[in-house]
Prior knowledge:
five-stranded parallel β-sheet, 24 strands, Polyamine Oxidase, Chain A, domain 2
Amino acid sequence: xxxxxxxxxxxxxxxxxxxxxxxxxxxxxxxxxxxxxxxxxxxxxxxxxxxxxxxxxxxxxxxxxxxxxxxxxxxxxxxxxxxxxxxxxxxxxxxxxxxxxxxxxxxxxxxxxxxxxxxxxxxxxxxxxxxxxxxxxxxxxxxxxxxxxxxxxxxxxxxxxxxxxxxxxxxxxxxxxxxxxxxxxxxxxxxxxxxxxxxxxxxxxxxxxxxxxxxxxxxxxxxxxxxxxxxxxxxxxxxxxxxxxxxxxxxxxxxxxxxxxxxxxxxxxxxxxxxxxxxxxxxxxxxxxxxxxxxxxxxxxxxxxxxxxxxxxxxxxxxxxxxxxxxxxxxxxxxxxxxxxxxxxxxxxxxxxxxxxxxxxxxxxxxxxxxxxxxxxxxxxxxxxxxxxxxxxxxxxxxxxxxxxxxxxxxxxxxxxxxxxxxxxxxxxxxxxxxxxxxxxxxxxxxxxxxxxxxxxxxxxxxxxxxxxxx
Length: 471
């Protein structure tokens, strides 16, 4: 049993911090641990990038709009907080890649751009004959000899060639990370591709063997993503409602963290007050850690870690304003196209429950590593740029009824080559020099909602083990 009540402070009220606070309090109740948990958030609201706008019958996400169903932690958490009946899959439909200013259907059977079916790959207009032949070399090439980290771009170019990478894989992967795939770390983003190659030698053959078979003919295809009927912000609100009264401090910033000789951790707040903790979980962006703990030089690596700025632009129209619509749910844009937008979702087709009857919602994305200036433009200028781009692929005959621009500055951390080793080094230093302090969140082990929730669960287990061992 623990001697006296122990204090755990969670810094950062995004989805990782919310998850940590929720599961800490749940664990304390379940096993009757004398544990006090406080969640501190600098902003006046919780949820971080999870924000939903409800306007004129539309449900519009400013940040993430969904999560992969196969990553089970997000749906499990939603069910735990009473939202199981609100989960809904996306409507499956054709998606496209925009290459050389033309929309090409995404080849069926491709997994993150890697073909698992030969016929759709051979008949697609995305690649030249030479590009297809080069991709076929994957069946003959030996597996990578390198056991150290490498770039996503380098790995896929070696296996499949430049054309497949630039016309399909890069638009898909950079859409997830808003990054440069020739700088992003393979082992910190998609280590499973390296593992498949090591096991099967051929990446194409390996992905075919490890990808579940699709539904048979006549079976309605089910979307692979989930969201909540009334927006993802409902998840934030539901988790917050489950937290103990008085355990959340909003509008409060932690300015400085230090360890006392007795092992306790002191947090200095922007209010001038101090707080004492037995364990601290930090889920804020990576660049805040060196600022909060400048005395620990091992955090200096994080000062060099880049983060891209992006924006989403949601535009609502009456149905009749789109005179040349496209049968599909959206497209991603290759870098060799003369477009500013990086992707567009036809939300009224992908998530029809979020749009009133007779209306259309287009959600476009701008900004990525090396191309971020557009994020700082005025709303009117962004609107003009996005409409100009959209009219190259479809015919829009009216101005939008309204528009929602959401800017996310330094919101997409870039896991560059060597990221995992740098993270391991930091965590080793923490164990030696700052025991009881744990880190997690989108800057470290995954950007998606389930990845962040997984990290929240992981740091809870670490903090509980530390406290119980300390006694």
